[in-house]
Amino acid sequence: MSAVSAAASSKADRFPDRRLGVLISGRGSNLQALIDAIEDGRLDARIAVVISNRDDAGGLERARRAGIDTLVRDHRGWPSRDEYDSMLAEDLRSRNVGVVCLAGFMRRVGLPLIEAFPAAIVNIHPSLLPAFPGLDAQRQALAHGVRVSGVTVHLVTAELDAGPIIVQRAVQVLEHDTEETLAARILVEEHKAFPEAVQRVLDGAWTLDGRRFVARPQDLRP
Ligand code: GRF
User: Fold this and answer.
1) Which of 6, 115, 185, 220 has its CA 20 to 30 A from that of 201?
2) Domains along the chain?
3) Ligand 1 pocket, 150 CB below 6 A?
4) pLDDT of residue 217
5) Number of the ligand 1 atom closest to the C-alpha atom of 33
6) pLDDT below 50 — which residues of the chain?
7) Nearest-CA neighbor of 51 among 87, 22, 28, 17?
8) Is 125 a catalytic residue?
9) Which DSSP string do the residues of 86-127 spell out, in sequence order?
């Protein structure tokens, strides 16, 4: 059993403090979706810190408005990606974060962070993975002429946008869609999928079966 699957199949009280660390780079609408879900009781968690690699990220203001601690950690000027990631891991660990949420964090995360939070880093991506990983997922979807795209929330592994899938929601691609109109409709589904997926990870009532993120039999209701 790999480190990831061993950690993911451990007990439901793996995250007793239910503390999230949210990493952002931009406007932070998915961060807002987590804040809103916590406020209205759909997500049983608290956000311990919001970290941005850019000081102009709009999401920082959303965090401040909600009374959440923020940190700006510029990725530029570091001798290596690993050193930057090690600092992030320390920032998160020192705040007792259990689950790390990548909410539009436009950086690949490397092993120092992945190994510090095994099976506990969640990413949101605007396509139905494994289709269209990487940048400009909506543009890729339109270029390929797919009729259906959507959103995927998945666990982060060392491979880009390829970890076990937690939640997906589909969105129809319309005849006259532009990148902007498609992105806007996908975003509506992102805001539902993200809190739902984070709640599932926190519940620990899920396990990894190879690449699949599945409910344990004892947690399936009739
Ligand atoms: C979202 O489309 C998300 O899927 C992608 O980056 C975008 C972030 O948007 N990873 P926001 O900053 O959460 O509004």
Assistant:
1) 185
2) 3-215 (3.40.50.170)
3) no
4) 65
5) 13
6) 1-11
7) 22
8) yes
9) HHHHHHHHTTT--EEEESS--S---HHHHHHSTT-EEEEESS
C-alpha span between 138 and 89 (Å, rounded): 30
Q: What is the pLDDT of residue 8?
A: 46
Is the CB–ligand 1 distance for residue 190 below 6 Å? yes
What is residue 3's predicted lDDT score, i.e. its pLDDT? 44
- Say how far apart CA 188 and CA 23 lie, in whole Å: 20
The residue whose CA is least distant from atom 1 of ligand 1 is 104
Q: With a 6 A CB cut-off, is 125 part of the ligand 1 pocket?
A: yes
Ligand 1: distance of its center to the CA of 113 in Å?
20
Residue 138 tokens, joined:
């909506």
Residue that the structure tokens 């400009």 belong to: 136
> Residue 15: which of 167, 122, 120 has the closest Cα?
120
Whose tokens are 């929330």? That residue is 153
C-alpha span between 194 and 124 (Å, rounded) = 7
Tracing tokens 């993120």 back to the chain, one arrives at: 213
Return the pLDDT at 216.
Answer: 67
CA 137-101-6 angle, to 5 degrees, is: 105
Q: Is the CB of 35 under 6 A from ligand 1?
A: no
Nearest CA, atom 14, ligand 1? 29
pLDDT of 60 reads 98
Handedness of CA 125, 153, 115, 38 (dihedral sign): positive
Which amino acid is it at 185? R
